[in-house]
Design goal:
Structural class: mainly beta
Oligomer: single chain
Largest sheet: 8 strands, antiparallel
CATH class of the largest domain: Mainly Beta
CATH topology of the largest domain: Umud Fragment, subunit A
Order of helices and strands: EEEHEEEEEEE
Shape: globular
Helix content: under 10%
Strand order of the largest sheet: 1-4-5-10-6-7-8-9
CATH architecture of the largest domain: Ribbon
Number of strands: 10
CATH superfamily of the largest domain: Umud Fragment, subunit A
Length: 139
């Protein structure tokens, strides 16, 4: 099961150069080396900074959604969780990251066939902490 460690973002302005050319996976064209606008990573990643936080992912239950162990996910608590959203949820005070399914009851669905979905039948306490809106991965 993938778990999450909650990390609150520190919001500061940080503008980095944004090259306005596409980046080919093959050989780049030296004729296209020019600088475009600047990109503020906070504005790009945090649509609602006051209600956003990061979580570091542990485990492999979301690998088929492209979420790997060690990734940082961006979570927005101001977004109402809907069917199909990837969410950070607390089940009996333990955090997990799963896809929310609200068809035929409430379920938390992993994105890895090795794991079973969590069917919520009222026997456990569920709190949806927020909706995953982005992902950061370092190589």
């Amino acid at each position: 099961m993938s778990k999450a460690t909650i990390i609150k973002p520190v919001v500061t302005e940080l503008e980095l150069p944004l090259y306005s050319t596409k980046v080919p996976a093959g050989f780049p064209s030296p004729a296209e080396e020019y600088l475009g606008d600047c990109l503020d990573l906070n504005q790009f990643l945090l649509k609602n900074p006051d209600s956003s936080f990061f979580a570091r992912v542990e485990g492999d239950s979301m690998i088929d959604a492209g979420i790997l162990a060690g990734d940082l996910v961006v979570i927005d608590r101001s977004i109402s969780a809907k069917d199909g959203h990837i969410v950070i949820a607390a089940i009996d005070n333990e955090f997990t990251i799963k896809r929310l399914s609200t068809k035929d009851g409430i379920r938390l669905v992993p994105e890895n066939k090795k794991y079973n979905e969590i069917i919520l039948n009222g026997e456990v306490e569920l709190v949806i902490w927020g909706v995953v809106t982005g992902l950061i991965r370092k190589f």
